[in-house]
Amino acid sequence: MNGLTRALRSEGGKGLIMVSPPLVYALLLLAAPLATIVLFSFWTQNFLTIDRTFTLANYAEALSDPLYRELMLRSLRISALVTLVTVVLAFPVAYFISFHVAPEKKSLWLFLITIPFWTSYLIRVFLWRVILAYDGPVNGSLIGLGLIDEPLSFILYNANAVVITLAHAFAPFAILPIFVSLEKIDRSLLEAARDLGESKTMTFLRVTLPLAMPGVLAAILIVSIPTVGDYVTPRLVGGSGGTMIANMIYAQIFDLNDRPMGATLAVLAMAIVALTLIWGIARLRFWLWLAEARGLWVAVGAALAEIVALRLFFLNGPAILGAPATVLSLLALATLGSVLIFWRVPKGRAGI
């Protein structure tokens, strides 16, 4: 008992006491529900009862059904496109605030960026539904200007509408981390680059952009992870062409009353998203390292070749290996390749 008292009074014991409440909170509200979902995925549903016999049938069905694969791929494509659009448009805004706005006015600009958070996310989605409607402001303005003869049909109730809405909703999440990263850059480094004869463009590419990459990477993660599992936006503006994996998870649990299959799709979605992001970060490190060591065009060629090879493998693999084996092989190769890259390839100037 005395030993326990001394341990609790030590520095480590005091730290443990301080972190215990949030640790218990996290375990109860995060780990326990996640463990429950994983456990449900190995059971089956018989009408209103749950058969708790351990089985992998749900995973076999989820990996072999082409509908689930298509929805997962569509979710990844939409998330990647939203991330690309959001980060590309957010970087100039963050750069302008960091480098061209007076220090005393930066807080005002950041305050203005957060104004969209004053309204409900659901209201913002409904507003985009009105804006992109066939009789909405976009089509009305284009018809009034004589640019089109009939309303555009590709801006609502499809994947394009989902990308537009999500890109607007997550723009502040991309601007803020990039701004923080740009603010940390020592301006004397930029002055030194200019004194050594670098142009503004090359100074940006060789100094500013690499030093801002941690913020860009944070923006990519912050935007891509929640957009993969978004449910509201595809439901309201996506239509049948914008349905994502979260909508199918909802349908399995609430509409079809098949909670184990919904849990299986949720577990697979989490695993695929996590491994895809790890693979993407690892490949980005490898391509940046290759660009520094062998040149930009060598890195671009290697990246394109790898992407084409993966696409061919995914398209032709199910006919040769079967759909489940193809998906599992891709995940295993991505994991193994990522581990090797993180182990053998050092971080470059970009800090990735």
Plain-language structure description:
This protein is an all-alpha fold and 352 residues long. It has two domains: 1-28, no CATH class; 41-344, MetI-like (MetI-like fold, Orthogonal Bundle). The chain contains 16 helices and two strands. A two-stranded antiparallel sheet has the order 1-2. α11 runs antiparallel to α14 and α14 packs antiparallel against α15 (296-320). The protein is globular and about 75 Å long. The two termini are 48 Å apart.
The unreliable regions are none
Radius of gyration: 24 Å
**Helix proportion range:** over 70%
| Continuous helix count | 16
Class by SSE composition? mainly alpha
- Quaternary state reads single chain
The major sheet is characterized as: 2 strands, antiparallel
Number of domains: 2
How much is the average pLDDT?
A: 87
Task: Kindly report the spatial arrangement of strands forming the biggest sheet.
Answer: 1-2
Give the overall silhouette. Answer: globular
**SSE pattern:** HHEEHHHHHHHHHHHHHH
First CA to last CA: what distance? 48 Å
Strand tally: 2
| Residues in β-strands, percent | under 5%
Which CATH architecture of the largest domain? Orthogonal Bundle
CATH class of the largest domain: Mainly Alpha
CATH fold assignment of the largest domain: MetI-like fold
Spell out the CATH superfamily of the largest domain: MetI-like
